[in-house]
């Protein structure tokens, strides 16, 4: 039997609606610029640039309803409201049609971002890790099984800060559909149960400060809330 120098960390996991069992998470993939208006908002050109990927550590997961301290190292802390897809079967180099069978569940999520650090990294041609992959940067609601929702092709996605609408979009506005994302990502990775995919955000991203309340909703999936606390 193996022994460890330090205790094993807790397994990152997400609650599942209607079940006491939890979904154990191994990896978090995120799709960049998957809504045309947001691509333009970030200075990109969706007519020329396909979506791309970055990752967050699994221990960045934070459940809806939490209060997060304003993170260190930033003066421009942003929300990005997203649909999250949970993979439930192994897939590798599959077609979009075959990829549909791997969709196990959906959730509402927030890709929290240190936007000033991201801008600095972009300007220097450096990775985005400090801007995207920091502690508690992947907020998520409970998972809702795809067997309850069917394949999501459309549906309103929205976010408000202190009750003021900030993001309004539709899942049908994605440049790449959910099956296309999974199929494309499977050309690069052996996807498996335990993988989450944050599928991109509509335009309207912006900053929050301590004391703010974020509320988000994806019709037919879930709602989430997040309070922004004082710096730790």
UniProtKB/TrEMBL annotation:
Record bears the keyword Hydrolase: yes
Top-level taxon of origin: Bacteria
InterPro entries, alphabetized: Fumarylacetoacetase-like_C, Fumarylacetoacetase_C_sf
Domain Fumarylacetoacetase-like C-terminal: residue ranges: 28-225
Presence of keyword Transcription regulation: no
One Pfam family recorded for the sequence: FAA_hydrolase
A GO term for molecular function: hydrolase activity
Keyword annotations: Hydrolase, Metal-binding
The name this protein goes by in its record: Fumarylacetoacetate hydrolase family protein
